[in-house]
Automatic annotation (TrEMBL):
InterPro entries: Bact_Sigma-Reg, GAF-like_dom_sf, PAC, PAS, PAS-assoc_C, PAS-like_dom_sf, PAS_4, PPM-type-like_dom_sf
Pfam families: PAS_4, PAS_9, SpoIIE
Origin organism lineage: Bacteria, Pseudomonadati, Bacteroidota, Sphingobacteriia, Sphingobacteriales
Native organism: uncultured Cytophagales bacterium
Cross-referenced Gene3D superfamilies: 3.30.450.40, PAS domain (3.30.450.20), PPM-type phosphatase domain (3.60.40.10)
Domain of life: Bacteria
Coiled coil residues, start to end: 113-178
Name of the featured protein: Serine/threonine protein kinases
PAC domain boundaries: 242-293
The keyword Signal is annotated on this UniProt entry: no
One Gene Ontology molecular-function label: phosphatase activity
Keywords (A to Z) from UniProt: Coiled coil, Hydrolase, Kinase, Serine/threonine-protein kinase, Transferase
PROSITE patterns, per the entry: PAC, PAS
Domain PAS residues, every copy: 168-238, 293-364
Length: 672
């Protein structure tokens, strides 16, 4: 900012004073856009000059910014500084503020008017210069117009001649591009000298790609001989035309069939080559093939034992094969062009055909159904396949019904179903018998309050079974795994069940190993495996415990099955002997071993059939494995048997997932 006017101020050297925004009181009032009133005036700040009073120091300074609103923003146009002999009153300050707004608006208007005036003067000068330039341009334009009119007359004549030539060339180009044939000219060495533009539309190659090459490389190997023969005959007999057919490779990798007619024009100076006209006959060959196939299908249909009928969308018959005469007793001509309701067939047959036709038309898909078909040869059962047939626009225009007589098959199926039902009933009855004689969780818990039996037969009946007996103070409990599963396994399990009852029920006080020795003898004798010519190899694996809670002893013996015993938080695995009960003669077989364990409160015993560790599943479809069983036992030391039962069940089902159960599963757990 610079000083532009003053009153009662005589210091000439400050009359051209300049201030920056925020510099001094003037700059501070301008940047803050606010009025400043000061009464503490330094002695050398400013004086007021008067003719009567001379120079006197003011008592009050008032600095007012000149502010007005431009657009939506406040703008400072200057600052007025007042010095007074007395302090300015509030009324004086308000008055000065109001006057400052008027002065600011006036300054703004003056600046706008001055700018407008300068722009107007500049516009007038530019207008005068433009008028002078336009006059010069007008004169030049008149001269150019005369020259252009002469050139135009000359060009029009030339353009007419060029247009006539272009039209002739375009007509020829369009004809060549849209021709149904490809015209190719070969020189005497069979190199292409010319090929028509229709090549790109038909085969995908541009003419530039083909000129100068021998295109025999695109001919299928089975057609190369025909092409060679055509050129040879044209060379030997130039007055003849030769026509051949061959498969040709398109640019997109597809193959099309071409029919080519060659003419020798080597002696014509305007052509000097062999002209070959080729056309795409792929669709024609397909049509011929389809016609042959339709003829073959017609012959098959006429002689088919299946009833074949074709309906249009309105249900009118426009084809039916002769077998209808066997089923209806009427000639096939009696059915042609008849609506479904007009057919001389049983009402039930007509109604079923109507429903199937409507389903095909609604779903636009093939429909298969079985239906009863009363006929002149008796009541038959038909397997009907209704197939939609589409036109070129992919719209269903007819439905083909193929009805296959499955009466004999249905009778066989019914007989099989009847036999299966009887077998299933027998197996279910065997399940009830097996379930009635085997111990369950309730029976075991009467003797062992903290115990469980996890039992999962693979089939209805099982080859695995739990066995329990109490004799005096001795408690006998076993997990038995018989050969096989299902009905064969269940039969072996009954042999084992009753043999164990007889052995343990005898007056003899036997150890666990002696019980298994006698069981082995009983199975071998019962199944007659003691003969050298015996063909049966059935037997069983077993884990047997003889428990006396008064003496706190547990005697264990096993055939192929271990005992997992937990004592003082440590897991002890006692393996069974490595030979089964029964199953024929085994080398190195000895008597079964008895292992005695002293029972302490809190001990736990677990034994199971091999169906548990051998179950396939998991992310890599592997066996569950004995290690996972041991991990579950050692990983849950504080759980009771009901909780561990649930853990084993959940882990087994999670591992199995959607995999089929491999074998019968049996696990027994007891906590003392």
């Amino acid at each position: 900012m610079e000083m532009t006017a003053s009153y009662a101020y005589h210091k000439k050297k400050y009359l051209q004073a300049r201030f920056r925004f925020a510099e001094g009181l003037v700059g501070q009032a301008a940047i803050e856009q606010d009025t400043l009133l000061r009464t503490e005036i330094p002695n050398n700040y400013v004086t007021i000059t008067s003719g009567l009073l001379g120079d006197r120091r003011p008592k009050c300074i008032l600095v007012v910014p000149l502010i007005t609103v431009v657009g939506s923003q406040k703008q400072v146009f200057g600052v007025m500084e007042y010095a007074g002999f007395e302090k300015f009153s509030g009324r004086n300050v308000r008055f000065i503020n109001e006057v400052s707004e008027i002065i600011a608006r006036t300054v703004f208007n003056i600046k706008v008017n001055e700018t407008t005036r300068k722009l107007l003067e500049q516009s007038q000068r530019q207008s005068e210069e433009l008028q002078i330039q336009q006059e010069v341009l007008r004169q030049n334009a008149e001269e150019m117009q005369a020259t252009q009119e002469e050139l135009k007359r000359t060009n029009q004549a030339l353009e007419q001649q060029i247009e006539q030539v272009n039209h002739a060339q375009k007509r020829m180009q369009v004809l060549l591009e849209n021709a149904s044939e490809i015209i190719t000219i070969y020189d005497s060495t069979r190199m292409i000298r010319f090929v028509s533009p229709s090549l790109q539309r038909i085969l995908g190659y541009s003419p530039e790609e083909m000129i100068g090459m021998n295109d025999i490389v695109y001919v299928h190997e089975l057609g190369v001989e025909s092409v060679d023969r055509m050129f040879s005959e044209l060379t030997q007999h130039p007055d003849q035309s030769v026509t051949i057919q061959f498969s040709y490779l398109c640019k997109n990798g597809d193959r099309v069939w071409l029919e080519a007619t060659g003419t020798n024009r080597l002696s014509d100076p305007a052509i000097n080559g062999i002209v070959v006209n080729s056309r795409d006959i792929t669709e024609r060959r397909k049509a011929d093939k389809e016609a042959r196939m339709r003829g073959q299908m017609q012959a098959l249909s006429e002689n088919s034992p299946d009833l074949i009928t074709r309906f249009n969308k309105e249900g009118r018959v426009f084809y039916i094969n002769p077998i209808i005469e066997t089923y209806s007793g009427h000639q096939k001509d009696a059915f042609y062009q008849k609506q479904l309701d007009e057919l001389t067939l049983e009402p039930g047959v007509v109604e079923n055909w109507k429903n199937i036709l409507q389903t095909v038309l609604t779903s636009q898909e093939k429909v298969s159904a079985e239906m009863d078909f009363p006929s002149s040869v008796g009541n038959r059962v038909m397997q009907v396949n209704a197939i939609p047939e589409y036109n070129d626009q992919s719209v269903v225009e007819s439905v083909l019904f193929v009805s296959h007589d499955i009466t004999e098959r249905k009778m066989a199926e019914l007989e099989i179903q009847s036999k299966n039902r009887k077998i299933t009933e027998s197996i279910n009855y065997a399940k009830r018998i097996q379930g009635a004689i085997l111990p369950n969780n309730d029976i075991i818990k009467e003797v062992f309050p903290d115990a469980f039996i996890l039992y999962k037969p693979r089939d209805v009946v099982s080859g695995d079974f739990p066995w329990f007996m109490q004799k005096g103070d001795d408690l006998y409990i076993a997990a038995v795994d018989c050969t096989g599963h299902g009905v064969p396994g269940a039969l072996i399990s009954l042999i084992g069940y009753f043999l164990l009852n007889n052995i343990v029920g005898s007056p003899d006080d036997l150890t666990a190993g002696e019980i298994l020795d006698r069981l082995d003898y009983g199975v071998t004798h019962t199944l007659r495996q003691d003969n050298s010519d015996s063909s049966t190899r059935d037997g069983m694996d077993i884990a047997l415990c003889k428990i006396n809670l008064k003496k706190n002893t547990l005697h264990y013996a096993g055939a192929h099955r271990p005992l997992y015993y937990v004592q003082n938080g440590e897991l002890l695995e006692i393996k069974g002997d490595k030979f089964p009960i029964g199953g024929g003669q085994y080398k190195g077989r000895t008597n079964f071993t008895t292992t005695e364990i002293g029972i302490r409160p809190g001990d736990g015993a677990y034994f199971c059939s091999d169906g548990f560790p051998d179950q396939f599943g998991g992310p890599e479809n592997r066996k569950f494995s004995p290690k996972r069983i041991r991990d579950i036992i050692t990983g849950n030391p504080d759980m009771n048997m009901a909780q561990i039962h649930q853990v084993f069940d959940q882990e087994f089902e999670a591992w199995k997932g959607d995999t089929k159960q491999t074998d019968d599963v049996l696990m027994i757990g007891i906590k003392f």
